Amino acid sequence: MSDDRMESVLKEERVFPPPPSFAANALIGDMETYRREHRRSLEDPDGFWAEAAGELDWFRPWERVFDGSEAPFFQWFVGGKLNICHNAVDRWADGEKRDTPAILWEGEPGDQRQLTYGELKTEVSRFANVLKSLGIHKGDTVAIYLPMTPELAIAVLACARIGAIHSVIFAGFSADSIKDRVLDADSKMVITGDGGWRRGSVLPLKSVVDEGVEACACVDKVLVVPRNPGGERMACEMRPGRDFWYDEVVAGVSDECPCEEMDAEDMLFLLYTSGSTGKPKGIMHTVGGYSVYTYLTSKYVFDLKPEDIYWCSADIGWITGHSYIVYGPLQNGATVLMYEGAPNHPEPDRFWDIVDRYKVSIFYTAPTAIRAFMKWGDDWVEKHDLSSLRLLGTVGEPINPEAWMWYHRMIGKERCPIVDTWWQTETGGILLTPLPGVTPTKPGSATLPFFGVDAAVLDPEGNEVDAGLLAIRRPWPGILRGIWGDAERFRKTYWCNWDGRYYFPGDGARRDKDGYFWVVGRVDDVVNVSGHRIGTAELESVFVEHPNVAESAVIGVPHEVKGQGLVAFVLLRGRDAEGSEELRGELNDLVAKKIGKFARPEKIIFSADLPKTRSGKIMRRLLRDIATGQALGNVTTLADPSVVDSLKEKYQA
Ligand code: WTA
């Protein structure tokens, strides 16, 4: 946990009540209602969640709201039948919102597309029929590796429609990462594209997939979606019998495809995320609870109204995009904006230009993006009319009060509430958050629990403390149902503290006198780089694959824009112990190849030794002290104190 952050949040005293004009029109506009409903959601969770679920369509009602008898394998809405695609698409397409825009899309080069709910239903149904025609059935796993085009949302919804389990892989991941995820999930098909635009160049997605699935016997089809529907295709090598162009197979396919009746506890998707071992975990989410939870959180946290233009700048490759671009907002019938590319292409004002042109009213982004905007300068913001904005949000990492204040002043013009939302891939949806019409906000605090969430800050023995480990006392509908293929790791990671009575998210937190939560960061070996979760163990196992590397230790250090950056200490074998620029380059390439470019460390330090305890355990704490230039903590257990001095010298060189 970062001491800097602890220091800065301890000093933060500013409070910003919701603007009265916002509160007056908000879905929930007073603290009394929040408190009463929150209390009710804990005292009568079955009643509360039944009511929320009742706002969605069900093919068959549930028999029991909750079943905890097989804890920690919880079940929600037991016996109920529904389909999230029906609630996100058909419910609106078959009603008054048929001609309301569901998705407004802008490509990085400036091309635009718009899909009404009616059109979205047609596209999703056709896509679903293509999946079926290529042999995909309910329960099959489909990997999706696409750029941020409407087809990514359509592919995800099409899988949900027919009951296939989607496993979206962020399009910045490498071929090796695709391979690991495809094999672990036993995916039968990979959906990819001919390319996508990022910072002025085309990502060669198809060739990355080809390399990734080379050794994956489970994959028998690769579906390639052209980036420019009806336009020119980008060059791709196609393997006969395995690879299919979407525009060719879709020709003549029916646009009628009924939604599969899914059991509430049938799998909806897998999403891989980093943990504290080298192997990413496939986080499992099921249909019923996830539908209800993303629906209700979107509604109240973003205060969604029919006239809103809602923009979440995340990628659908991460959980934020799953829950708050696709499923949550669409289940509310919202109009969602999607943008394909980089925030600084062609100029650093691209986002504000988009807000201005599309009259975006709700904007949800990450602290790392906010810090980049701050660095690029206010002029880029001031060029644009941002008066359409009424609500701002952040997610992904702790936001430093300075960035919060800039967001509040420069983007929100001091009239937009900011919802700092804390949650995780595992939680499915937002757990700690202000309600924008209700909660007085404090810069850097995710404030209070959402309905149904009973959060606490505990010491390892389970006593409530002011600063310690974040814990969630009872399950909520959106909670993960497990780690794919690894029940033991699921128990160990999330349920081993406090005799399994609390969910343990792996974060440290502080609670202030008003009961507000201040999440300070991970307490395990997961580092949050620009909002991307990276396990240090994943990098370490990449480095030791290099023949010259004997051992390595990777740590996270504070970084001005990225939040945290990675520093690698690398112990070399034999002769090459000095290391070289060439070797540094090779190691960087190896990380790019094995994980993805976004995981490359800021700094690689070659060393003849690492600080270890007498029993041989690497003392990462000391490495962190060295990297942050702090006085060294307790060194009494260090086997060879001279190691630290030589590392310090190297680090500063
Ligand atoms: C961190 C992203 C502080 C936290 C939705 C968590 C945050 C991890 C916040 C999950 C926030 C996310 N304040 N920390 N508002 N939001 N985090 O799975 O450490 O990519 O455990 O989910 O991000 O990252 P993930």
Could you characterize the architecture of this molecule?
With 653 residues, the protein is of the alpha/beta class. Among the domains are: 116-260, Rossmann fold (3-Layer(aba) Sandwich); 525-652, GMP Synthetase, Chain A, domain 3. Helix content is 33%, strand content 22%. The chain is built from 21 helices and 30 strands. The strands form eight sheets. The chain has an eight-stranded mixed sheet, sandwiched between helices. The chain has a seven-stranded mixed sheet with strand order 5-4-17-16-18-19-20, sandwiched between helices. Helix 3 crosses helix 4. The longest helix is centred in the N-terminal third of the chain and has 17 residues, at 117-133. The chain is globular and about 75 Å long. The protein binds 5'-O-[(S)-ethoxy(hydroxy)phosphoryl]adenosine. Residues 273, 318-320, 395-398, 420-425, 446, 505-507, 519, 521-522, 528, 533 line the site of 5'-O-[(S)-ethoxy(hydroxy)phosphoryl]adenosine (WTA).
| Main pleated-sheet profile | 8 strands, mixed
Compounds present? 5'-O-[(S)-ethoxy(hydroxy)phosphoryl]adenosine
Average predicted confidence as pLDDT: 95
Biggest sheet: strands side by side, in what order? Answer: 12-11-8-6-7-14-15-23
* CATH architectural arrangement of the domain at 116-260: 3-Layer(aba) Sandwich
- Please tally the helical runs, counting DSSP H or I stretches of 4 or more residues: 21
**Outline type:** globular
**Could you name the CATH topology of the domain at 116-260?**
Rossmann fold
| Ends apart, CA distance between termini | 26 Å
